[in-house]
Structure formats: C-alpha cells, structure tokens
Amino acid sequence: MDQRIFQELKKSSELKLTQLNAEFSKVMEDDFNAILENSVNRMQREGRISSSDIDNAKRNINIYLEHLAQNRERQFGGRDILRYKSLNESKSSICPLWPIC
C-alpha cells in the first residue's frame, strides 16, 4: 500500500469529520482505516494514482462520510459519534462509489 496516498486520504477524511463535528467510535475508526487501505490498494491495482485520481478519491470519501454522518449519534457539548452500524448502512446505500466499493 502506498503510505503517501493513504495519509492524503486520511488527512482529508479527518478534515471532513471536523467540518461535520463528528468522530469515529474506536471500532469504527479501525474499520474506516481498513476501508482507506483497501481503497488505496484498489487505486494502485487499477493504476489510478495520479493527482486527479487522488482528488477524486478524496471527494468520494467525503461523500461517504456525509452519508455516515446522517446516522450519527448526537452528543451534547462534544463531537457526534459515528458508530459501526452506520458503516454498513451507508455503504449499502451509496455503492458503487470508487474507490471504496
């Protein structure tokens, strides 16, 4: 896996989570990192690692995060929590969305 691309996608997703005032539960964070790793591996397999491909992946991951946020657990006085349940619900409703699924 290309660590540079992974870090770019991770940073972009962290910025989006901040905009959404949300954070992952611990389990969800591990699963989301696995999704990012799989996405980077897919990008490499398909030879789609140009800067425009990376920008497209960032946009699509942000779309995915917006869908995840629709099922967030509201917190008063803190960031909303994104739990594992929302991962599967969002994925099934939004796919196909390259490079996630």
What's the SSE pattern? HEHHEH
Query: Strand percentage, roughly?
Result: 5-15%
The count of DSSP E runs of length 2 or more, i.e. the number of strands, is 2
Query: Which strand order spans the largest sheet, edge to edge or round the barrel?
Result: 1-2
How can the largest sheet be summarized? Answer: 2 strands, parallel
What is the arithmetic mean of pLDDT?
89
Structural class: mainly alpha
pLDDT < 50 runs, ≥5 residues: none
What distance lies between the first and last C-alpha atoms, to the nearest angstrom?
Answer: 17 Å
Q: How many domains, as an integer? A: 1
Question: Radius of gyration over alpha carbons?
Answer: 13 Å
**Outline type:** globular
Helix content: 55-70%
**Please, how many helices?**
4
Question: What does the secondary structure layout of this molecule look like, with pairings?
Answer:
Blueprint: H1 3-19, E1 22-24, H2 26-45, H3 51-69, E2 80-82, H4 84-94
Parallel strand pairs: 1-2
Helix pairs in contact: 1-2, 1-3, 3-4
Q: How is this structure best described in words?
A:
This protein has 4 helices and 2 strands, in the order αβααβα. The chain is mostly helical and 101 residues long. It has one domain. The longest helix is centred in the middle third of the chain and has 20 residues, at 26-45. The two termini are 17 Å apart. The model has no long low-confidence stretch (mean pLDDT 89).
